[in-house]
Predict the 3D structure of the following.
Amino acid sequence: IVDRIKKYFYLQKNQSVFFLGNSMLFPISNYGSLKVKEVFGVKSFAYSLEQFCHSPLFSISKNDIIIIFSSKNQHLNEKAKKLSNNLNSIKIKAIFIEIPFKNTIEIFLMASFIIEMLIYGLATEKGMNDCYFLENKNLLNISSELIYN
């Protein structure tokens, strides 16, 4: 799964990454979005499937990547598959990731593991030594001032 996703990441400033997930996969999608921002400095967003199709769908471009998390025990699984297929048919990079478990804890852990491996794999492949947030001292200082003081 990670190799399938990695080939779409150019890590350019004109590329956005959208993570979609419903139910317990929405917080995982949000986590993935936050990690892309922190580590690579690339715009990233997290939405539920329904919310994405109402408005954010109309802001995507051909450079963007849409990562759709779903699981077999979600009633929206078919809609998620359909969205992925429809986006790919118009040359938008959509990756459908179906977590094969039915147990909530297994789904959560597997999706978290996929995100961690994706971020680590991309950073390693790009030869990164530090995360974007550590390299951008001005933004790091602003963040630290507001969080820790």
